[in-house]
Amino acid sequence: MKNIVTEQLTHAGRQIEHDSFAIVDAEAGPHGYSTEEWQVVRRMIHATADFEFNGLTQFAPQAVAAGVQALLSGAPIVADVEMICVGLSTPRLNHFNVTTHQFIADEDVIAQAKAENSTRAVQAMRKAQRLNLLDGGIVAIGNAPTALLEVVRMVREEKLRPALVIGMPVGFVSAAESKAQLSETETETIPWIVIDGRKGGSTLVVAAIHALLALAEAQQAA
């Protein structure tokens, strides 16, 4: 049997994951997602045991297809925090020659945030833009609403064009608002995946990207 890089490495691990997905499918109830979108939502539910993501998760048209194509082409992933980069499977990323980047703790980012009285997350996104990582890349935000607000600003004011923005910051200050702003962006301009409201987090971003990687491998093998 051909090894599938985006699945668990052992038979026991694969069986547990497949059984878990079957339970999610059985208990989730009806939904309006496409087959491909459900692969993303299902894995997010699997990662959190929270069925509210069946409904809270929203997709721009063709967002999943855009993310899959970006991964197949080896587009970089720019995250707002290190936790996302650490959580992603290195073998799965290497299979597609995808690199991950985050700049939240860089000394120049911290210094600039202090000088401008902004946040490290804002300056990290600006650094990523200066390094030409955002245009055509996947932006993955699970923690910092200000990072997502800055990306939306760059899309609107600087004509930034990421391949996909996964906007899932968690929290109480500007989290829901930042995701609402992203979802109000013209879908012809930028594909996005968001979670409505305050819920979110790095775990969900990692789950969504792993789902996209699995879809990319399936397309590669077709």
Automatic annotation (TrEMBL):
Positions of the Cobalamin biosynthesis precorrin-8X methylmutase CobH/CbiC domain: 15-214
Pfam family, one: CbiC
Any single GO BP term: cobalamin biosynthetic process
MF term (GO), any: precorrin-8X methylmutase activity
UniProt superkingdom: Bacteria
Pathway linked to the protein: Cofactor biosynthesis; adenosylcobalamin biosynthesis
Protein keywords: Cobalamin biosynthesis, Isomerase
Matches recorded under InterPro entries: Cbl_synth_CobH/CbiC (IPR003722), CobH/CbiC_sf (IPR036588)
Entry's family note: Belongs to the CobH/CbiC family.
Record-given protein name: Precorrin-8X methylmutase
